[in-house]
Specification:
Layout lengths: L4 H8 L10 H6 L2 H8 L4 H8 L10 H5 L4 H18 L6 H14 L2 H7 L14 H8 L4 H10 L1 H9 L4 H10 L2 H10 L1 H4 L7 H25 L3 H21 L8 E7 L5 E6 L7 E6 L6 H26 L5 E7 L13 H21 L4 E7 L1 H11 L7 E5 L19 E4 L24 E2 L5 E2 L6 E2 L14 H10 L23
Helix pairs in contact: 1-6, 3-4, 6-7, 6-8, 10-13, 15-16, 16-17, 17-20, 18-19
Length: 512
């Protein structure tokens, strides 16, 4: 029977995360509980650790497990030796640590133990891990070791960011780290910390801003050293992307406050900027774009659109005198399609996964249940509808504009209250009614509420609400579409205009 380095690390990596499961209980718990802690450790390993008669008096590892076990066992020793320093102020029961070392004394030949001594944990051991196990492992590295690991394993880092552990798992992991580990993770691997749902928002913002600056410096350094014309064009394109994000973030004292939640500087890039205090907002609105929208070309404009929704919602809260906080998220957190890759749902599925993680991340951070809505445009509606129909997440309200179709057949298949699903369609929008990607959300059979985007005049205030005529006009400042989308995001559907005579009773002047 051989133990792999991955399996051993899965076990040992659980020691410092005392918030997940205290170290003493790991060894006393039933095997079913251990399986939750080890997350994928082989059955024989769980049996080995659960065996009460397992003592350090057995034969050597070479005789018991074979000579091939030595490297894996040495890895376990390195983790055990590094644990006290890595844990910092966290309490680790001495008896549990002793028992863990007892296990390793059976598994590890003396030669392997002597060769490793009390050296720090070897980052190379992490190469075979993924998900929660990888996250636990990187949390034990120093800042310098993290920088080395990130530089030598770019694909491993990208995979962790693309398919991260659930936000609740990440939150427990982060809470279980000591302050020194927080600093090491943020300094040594900012692109990991900044993109993990479940890490506190200010920490993610600081990490992403650091990584943004590092990426910019790296590009400028390469340009200063001289490159060929092709490489130069690529670097200048990447600089344009960074410039868009910097412009969208604005000054540090910009109001409302802006936090960089998501950052991927590898073309075509991903980014998400929160406006307002996402960690305490009562109402949170994600604004999701569609075809042709990119970080490189539209991050600033999309953030401005989210800011206009924020301003309208904040104004409405004053009007209704509810004293509740709002936040919006300018979310280009997926690769929106262009003409050459619009024909499939592949990017929509990817976007659905990212959006589900982002929505659930807000709930994890808040620890409560804020009112969360999504305002989606074009292909972004298709991605959003996938996320809300596959059981991966839910929201409290949904506004769809310019939709090319949905995999869901009706509102009953969505994890959204049926009364809170709204559809807006501009008269000269060639995309609506196409049902290119499935059923038409604007059809009566879909069951969504209609919201007017045609423009109107408030009957009492005489305020002119601009019309949305084409596919890209829904976010026009001062438009009826913008007002309706903002109202939907703060659970004020009763005031959403439908383009019928009933709208005479929906003037916001009556809300005072």
């Amino acid at each position: 029977m051989l133990l792999s380095a991955s399996a051993l690390l899965l076990t040992s990596a659980a020691f410092p995360v005392t918030e997940v499961f205290p170290a003493p209980a790991v060894y006393q718990a039933p095997r079913a509980v251990q399986a939750q802690v080890y997350e994928g450790a082989p059955d024989f390993l769980a049996e080995l650790l659960a065996a009460p008669a397992f003592t350090p008096t057995g034969p050597s590892a070479d005789a018991t497990l074979g000579a091939d076990a030595a490297p894996a066992a040495a890895a376990m020793v390195s983790v055990l030796d590094a644990t006290p320093a890595a844990v910092g102020d966290a309490a680790v029961d001495p008896a549990s640590a002793l028992r863990a070392r007892s296990y390793s004394s059976v598994l590890v030949p003396d030669a392997a133990r002597g060769a490793r001594g009390s050296q720090a944990f070897d980052p190379a051991v992490l190469a075979g891990l993924k998900g929660p196990a990888l996250l636990s492992g990187v949390g034990m590295l120093s800042s310098a070791q993290l920088e080395t690991f990130v530089a030598e394993n770019p694909q491993k880092v990208r995979d962790l960011i693309r398919t991260p552990p659930a936000g609740a798992q990440v939150a427990r992991w982060w809470k279980g780290l000591a302050p020194a580990q927080h600093r090491a993770m943020t300094a040594g691997a900012p692109q990991i910390v900044g993109n993990l749902e479940g890490v506190p928002i200010p920490v993610r913002d600081a990490a992403n801003r650091l990584y943004l600056e590092q990426s910019k410096d790296a590009i400028l350094d390469r340009l200063d050293r001289g490159v060929g014309r092709g490489v130069q064009q690529t670097l200048l394109r990447d600089m344009k992307m960074i410039g868009q994000i910097e412009a969208a973030l604005g000054e540090r004292d910009a109001m409302p406050e802006r936090s960089l939640l998501t950052l991927d500087t590898k073309f075509p890039g991903r980014a998400a900027i929160a406006l307002g205090d996402l960690a305490s907002a009562d109402y949170v609105t994600f604004v999701v774009p569609g075809m042709f929208y990119s970080v490189t070309a539209h991050m600033r404009d999309w953030t401005d659109a989210a800011a206009r929704i924020y301003d309208e919602q904040a104004g409405f809260e004053g009007l209704f005198q509810e004293n509740r906080a709002v936040a919006t998220v300018a979310w280009i957190g997926y690769q929106a399609p262009h003409l050459m890759n619009i024909g499939t749902l592949d990017l929509a599925r990817e976007g659905a996964d990212y959006l589900s993680n982002a929505v659930d991340g807000v709930r994890t951070i808040q620890g409560t249940d804020p009112f969360i809505s999504v305002v989606a445009h074009s292909y972004g509606t298709t991605a959003t509808l996938l996320a809300l129909s596959d059981g991966s997440t839910s929201v409290d309200a949904l506004a769809l504009v310019g939709s090319p179709g949905s995999a869901a057949q009706n509102v009953g298949e969505l994890d959204v209250p049926a009364r809170n699903v709204y559809v807006g369609e501009a008269g000269m929008d060639p995309i609506v009614d196409s049902a290119f990607f499935g059923s038409d959300p604007g059809a009566a059979s879909f069951g969504a509420q209609k919201m007017s985007v045609a423009g109107s005049v408030d009957r009492l205030t005489r305020e002119v609400l601009n019309p949305s005529r084409g596919h890209n006009d829904y976010f026009t400042p001062g438009s009826e579409a913008m007002r309706n989308m903002a109202l939907i995001g703060i659970d004020k559907g009763r005031w959403v205009t439908e383009g019928t005579p009933d709208d005479a009773e929906k003037t916001l002047a009556l809300a005072r």
